[in-house]
Every structure is written in structure tokens, then in C-alpha cells.
Amino acid sequence: MEYVYASLLLHYAGKPVNEENVKKVLEAAGIEVDEARVKALVAALNEINIDEAIKSAAIPATAAPVAPAEAPAAEEKKEEEEEKKEEAKEEEEEEIAEGLSALFG
User: What is the mean pLDDT of residues 81-94?
Assistant: First the structure.
């Protein structure tokens, strides 16, 4: 994926997506460059209009509400866990109190 990201970064910056530039971007990111992958990527992208590919791959707006719908479930789960912890703590305190009352009658 980093090779594709490098090519998208170059395209966004208005630089030519060629082997030399892709290598520079990858090396700047600290990624070990595989020459064969770079050549294959550049060859494949020569036949593709990147702007059109980005437009056709855009995520539909209807997919956005999915994340907020999951939030209440996570909050409920958190609340349930907190309630269980409180109940366990109360039970432990009761057990301690019973133990003390047994000692002092």
C-alpha cells in the first residue's frame, strides 16, 4: 500500500509519477524500496487516469452515519461494566464487614 500512497502523494503534489520520484518518497518515509514493485506500479499507472480513479472510488455519503450508531452501544457496555465493578466492590465491603462482626461479635 505504501507504494500506492507514494504515487497518490506525488499526484496530489503535481509531480510526475515516475520510478525516481516514487523511490524518493518511499526512501524519505524510511521504507526499503523494491525496484520490481516500483517498476510495476509506474507501468500500471501510466495507463490510468488517477483523477478518474479517485472519483470512482469515492465513498458514498450514506456510509458516514455508521460510526455514530455504534457509539451508544459502546457507552452502554461501559456503563454495565462500571455497574458490575461497583456491585463487586459493595459485595467485597459487605464480606469484610461480616468478617469484622464475627471477630467482635
Answer: 83
